[in-house]
Amino acid sequence: MDLLEITEKERVGREEAAARLRALATALARKNEVEYERGDLKFKVNVPDEIDFKIEIEVQDDEWELEVEMKWGRKRRGGAKRR
C-alpha cells in the first residue's frame, strides 16, 4: 500500500484560520474536488458525495485541540463507522 502524506503546520491568526476553513468548505460545496497548492506542489483531490466526517476535541492541561477529519475511499460504501 502506497502512502502519501502532506502535513502543513503554521501559526496563523484566528481570522486567517477561519478564512482557510471557509475556502475549503466552499470548494467542497461547489464541486467534487479540492485543490492543494504550495510552491511547486499541486494536487487535486476528488471528494465523493458522501464521506465519513469526524470532529474531535482534546483538552490536556492548558492545551486545546480541535481536529476535523474527512475520510473516504473506494471501499467505504456502507456508511460511516461509529465509535
Give the DSSP E fraction (strand runs of 2 or more residues).
Answer: 35-45%
**Cα gyration radius (Å):** 15 Å
Question: How many DSSP H or I helices?
Answer: 1
Strand order of the largest sheet: 1-2
The run of helices and strands is HEEEE
Structural class designation: alpha+beta
Report the sheet with the most strands, covering strand number, pairing sense and barrel closure.
Answer: 2 strands, antiparallel
Number of DSSP strands?
4
Unreliable stretches covering 5 or more consecutive residues: none
Mean pLDDT: 86
Percent helix, as a range, is 10-25%
Overall morphology:
globular
What distance lies between the first and last C-alpha atoms, to the nearest angstrom? 25 Å
Verbal overview:
The protein has 83 residues and is of the alpha+beta class. Helix content is 20%, strand content 36%. The chain has one helix at 14-30, and strands at 33-38, 41-46, 52-60, 63-71. The strands form two sheets. Strands 1-2 form a two-stranded antiparallel sheet. The longest helix is centred in the first third of the chain and has 17 residues, at 14-30. The model has no long low-confidence stretch (mean pLDDT 86).
Main attributes of the structure:
two-stranded antiparallel ribbon, alpha+beta, globular, 1 helix, 83 residues
